[in-house]
Specification:
One of its GO terms (biological process) is proteolysis. With 491 residues, this protein is of the alpha+beta class. The chain is built from 15 helices and 22 strands. Helices cover 32% and strands 20% of the residues. The strands form five sheets. Strands 3, 4, 5, 6, 7 and 8 form a six-stranded antiparallel sheet that branches. Strands 9-10-11-18-19-22 form a six-stranded mixed sheet, sandwiched between helices. α11 links the parallel β10 and β11. The longest helix has 18 residues.
């Protein structure tokens, strides 16, 4: 059955109600043995509400004034009896998804070692990469060095649960900005090198693998159906394979004189690798070899460090204004009561001082970055003057969303592929607090800077100049439609 966007959301709403009890039971079985007391859960929920209302810059983007409080009250009612750690994690995931912010969630990567061991330490990760196409889970390759199914195979059922039912359960828990449902679907796929993937986390808490084995029902590319069992991988094993690939950046110039720069990850803080020197060396080669064009492939790249501005500085001819987003925060100085549980890596986030101007009549503080011409890209080094195409998809939702939007608005490159994640109405980020919930031991990511456009914008990501959507038969036959379109544009 093909699922339209409307039918998926309608099914998701129904499944969100009917699956709560079953999900809770499975989560309880998967959790650490101790149960959380009602008082502990409710005190942490009170703290979370206080922190969000005092700090979160996007709480009112899609919720009415005071609109987060009823969600917290419902969670408090849910906590009327003892719950497992896994149940509490799932509840926080659902609760934070209600904010409709792609950077607000119970982050598996930021949990304590104890919580990670209790919830995410089992061999229950699928050794497959897949993406959702028309509501169907289509295999794109393997993970962790395994490739047990050919690309283009369809996952009909996992753990005995139909894949479309799994998708409907997970959609209400998937994080994205506003109404960008393409990002929600992208978030629920499995990338080859993804860390603590949302699908892995939710599925393993609902349906812990028995004996480390995951039962599947699949439809092969030739149409035959079969059942099989695959050994689950641990997150640690998958991360070991990721360490071998690093950021996965690649650069080459093909025989037609077109450069191809592939950047599947911009999370550079985990690496001491000099990515700036890499980009500069790539552009120097383009100039030295008089390349005709450049394809920048950002597909699957959620964001991280703002690497794109370093590249753009080698492409612009003159100072180039970027799309303007006002930077605002809800506070100048963090309330004393929130200082102990709100952890961060930069002490300046606790007290903005004079860099936060305000408050205005709506209680906002405007952040001054110290540069009156701040939203500019200035030329740097030898310029590559050839044509440029940038490949994007729904994963591009943070720094890569901002880069895609800049490329689209300035005309510096041709944008090709699928609509991005993020949202033209603005996103939240720019720094984070890690809300350490003391009674339950769990953590929630809390962004602290809101980015707001100058006027009304549509509730969606960036739409490319040229669409390049992926179909199942493209995966079966190894065709890259977006890349082919980019090369044709640069011919």
């Amino acid at each position: 059955m093909m699922l339209t966007r409307r039918s998926m959301l309608r099914t998701a709403a129904a499944a969100a109600v009917t699956s709560v009890a079953a999900a809770a039971a499975r989560a309880s079985a998967a959790s650490a043995p101790e149960l959380l007391a009602t008082g502990a859960m409710r005190s942490d929920l009170d703290l979370l509400l206080h922190a969000f209302e005092a700090v979160h810059p996007g709480l009112g983007r899609y919720l009415p004034p005071g609109g987060f409080k009823p969600h917290v009250a419902a969670a408090g009612a849910w906590a009327a009896r003892e719950r497992s750690l896994a149940e509490m994690f799932l509840m926080l995931t659902r609760l934070t998804a209600a904010v409709r912010c792609g950077h607000t969630y119970a982050n598996p990567n930021n949990q304590t070692e104890r919580v990670q061991a209790a919830l995410f330490g089992r061999p229950d990760r699928l050794p497959l990469a897949f993406r959702w196409i028309g509501g169907r889970a289509i295999v794109t390759g393997g993970r962790g060095g395994a490739a047990p199914l050919p690309p283009g195979s369809e996952l009909l059922a996992i753990d005995g649960v139909p894949s479309q039912q799994l998708l409907a359960r997970m959609l209400p828990l998937s994080r994205a900005d506003g109404g960008n449902d393409g990002k929600r679907l992208s978030q629920l796929g499995l990338g080859a090198h993804e860390r603590m993937a949302t699908f892995d986390v939710l599925r393993s808490l609902w349906s812990p693998a028995t004996g480390g084995v995951i039962p599947l029902r699949v439809r092969m590319p030739d149409g035959r159906e079969r059942t099989l069992e695959l050994p689950g991988r641990t997150e640690a094993a998958l991360q070991e394979s990721r360490r071998e690939t690093g950021l996965g950046w690649r650069f080459e110039i093909d025989r037609d004189g077109v450069g191809r720069l592939t950047m599947p990850d911009w999370v550079t803080y985990r690496s001491k690798w000099n990515w700036r020197a890499y980009l500069d060396a790539a552009v120097d080669r383009l100039v030295d070899e008089r390349a005709r064009g450049l394809v920048v492939d950002l597909r699957g790249n959620e964001g991280g460090t703002e690497c794109g501005w370093h590249l753009l500085a080698r492409l612009v001819e003159r100072d180039t204004p970027l799309p303007r987003f006002a930077r605002r925060t809800r506070y100048r100085r963090l309330p004393d009561a929130l200082r102990p549980p709100l952890d961060t890596w930069d002490a300046r986030f606790r007290d903005w001082g004079e860099t936060a101007a305000g408050p205005d009549e709506h209680g906002w503080f405007a952040l001054d970055d110290g540069d009156e011409e701040g939203d500019l890209v200035r030329p740097r080094g030898r310029r590559f003057a050839g044509q440029v195409a940038v490949l994007v998809d729904a994963a591009c939702s943070s720094a890569t969303f901002q880069f895609a939007n800049a490329v689209r608005e300035t005309g510096l490159a041709r944008l090709i592929g699928e609509p991005t994640g993020g949202n033209l109405r603005g996103i939240n980020g720019g720094g984070y607090f890690f809300v350490r919930l003391p009674a339950t031991g769990l953590e929630v990511d809390l962004p602290i800077v809101g980015y707001f456009p100058a006027g009304p914008r549509p509730d969606r990501g960036v739409v490319p100049h040229d669409p390049g959507r992926v179909a199942r038969h493209d995966i079966v036959h190894g065709r890259d439609r977006a890349l082919a379109l980019a090369l044709a544009r640069l011919a």
